[in-house]
Structure formats: structure tokens, C-alpha cells
Amino acid sequence: MAYRDNLTDWGFGQYGSTYLTGDGARLQLTGSTAKYYICAITLTEDTTFQKLEVLDGGVGMGVINNTSCVATDGPYPLDTDWHGYTTLETTNEASEDSDQVTTSHVFPRGITIYGFWDQVELNSGACIVYVAPK
Which end is more exposed in the chain, N or C (fewer Cβ atoms within 10 Å of the end residue's Cβ)? Predict the structure, then answer.
């Protein structure tokens, strides 16, 4: 049997999933006792999000202290969170930040997005939401 690295488990659904469909369907893992976070979302229909909130506001995660990902509670400063080279170009700092997702952004069916979220709420569409332990 091949070696199985448990660090990759979160990306493939070993810790569980749930199916969300329609306006208002949500998974909320924001409580202080929550043991899981949302690590991946596979879209089974064209989908728009009402909420897609970064885990703990993106603070204190990963090897670089802060983490950014697709979210409705952004924008997040990618140039500083990801240690970008802001000294090379400082005239258009706003363009270096992540864009905030709104209900007008349609994510097409068939794709999977990966990230760190503690809340997902649909505006329309359907998806499978995968979780991983914190």
C-alpha cells in the first residue's frame, strides 16, 4: 500500500461534507466550540454566494501569519498578507488586493474552490461543502 500523507486528507473529503442548495442554504462553523472549518466547495450548479467568510477573519493562519482566499468579507491585502513586492509598484495598491465576492459573481458548476472559511451561505445554486479539522 502506498504511503498516505494525512496532510492531504482535507482536500479530498475524508473529514465529511454536506450538500447545500438554494437561496439561504448555509453551513456556519463560526462558534468558539467549532472543531471544523470549510476547506473546499464543489459547485454542482452555477452558484452565487451570500456569505463566504474567511476563517477567523484570516488572522493567524498558515506559515505567513495571515491568509487570504475568495470571500464576501474582503477585500484582503494580498500584497502584504502574501509578502508581495509592494516596493516595486506602489501607484495602484488597491488593485493588488483580492476582490470582494458579491451576489453578482457567478461561479460555474463543475469547479472546486479551496480555502479557509467558517461560513458559507448561498444566494443561488448548489454545492458540496467539505470540512476539515481546525
Answer: N
Residue 79 parent element (H or E): helix 78-81
**Which three cell numbers mark 35?**
472543531
Indicate whether 92 pLDDT > 70: no
- Whether 117 and 72 have beta carbons less than 8 Å apart is answered as no
> What pTM was computed for the model?
0.74
Q: Quote the CA–CA distance of 93 and 78 in Å, as a whole number.
A: 10
SS3 95: helix
Q: Report yes or no on 86 lying in a domain.
A: yes
Whether residue 8 lies inside any domain: the answer is no
- For residue 12, the SS3 value is helix
Half-sphere exposure of 119 (CA within 13 A, CB side): 13
Cell 501569519 -> residue? 65
